[in-house]
Design a protein that fits this description.
Oligomer: single chain
Number of domains: 1
Largest sheet: 7 strands, antiparallel
Order of helices and strands: HHHEEEEEEEHH
Radius of gyration: 15 Å
Shape: globular
Strand content: 25-35%
Strand order of the largest sheet: 4-3-2-1-7-6-5
Number of strands: 7
Structural class: alpha+beta
Length: 144
């Protein structure tokens, strides 16, 4: 099943009320079958990160993120970007699927779609940071 199929099968409210074991079954493939183990990670910064030690046990999703490419904010210099790996995760009852990405009830968001990650990585390598933001963290803002 694709993210689009999940979004067409379930309403936003239904996705938010699914039990943790069903969320685990639905979301694990998107959190483990990645393009070169890379994701797009957004918190206080946007980056391409490489995941290691991915765990999807009965209670939670957890992974170690290794910073790979800093996607600089198009309008602000000097945004925070970690120099060391960090661990993030969320219990299955608290992970949210938000259209084309996932988040916890904390502040991080991740995009795992292989083609999107590859495209954003290519844009970032060419320093086309605004386009990378528009495909991820700022998606839909210009449509308002």
């Amino acid at each position: 099943m694709t993210l689009q199929e999940i979004n067409s099968k379930y309403s936003f409210a239904e996705l938010q009320s699914l039990p943790g074991d069903i969320r685990r079954k639905l979301y694990t493939p998107f959190l483990t079958d990645l393009y070169e183990n890379k994701i797009i990670y957004y918190e206080r910064f946007l980056c391409v990160a490489i995941l290691k030690d991915i765990k999807t046990d009965a209670e939670k999703f957890e992974a170690k993120a290794i910073p790979y490419i800093n996607i600089q904010h198009p309008k602000r210099e000097g945004r925070y970007f970690p120099k060391k790996p960090w661990t993030f995760g969320v219990g299955w009852p608290y992970i949210r699927m938000l259209g084309d990405h996932f988040g916890g009830y904390s502040s991080w968001l991740i995009w795992t779609d292989k083609e999107l990650v590859k495209t954003v990585e290519e844009l970032a390598m060419k320093k086309e940071f605004e386009a990378a933001y528009e495909l991820t963290a700022y998606k839909g803002y210009n449509e308002k």
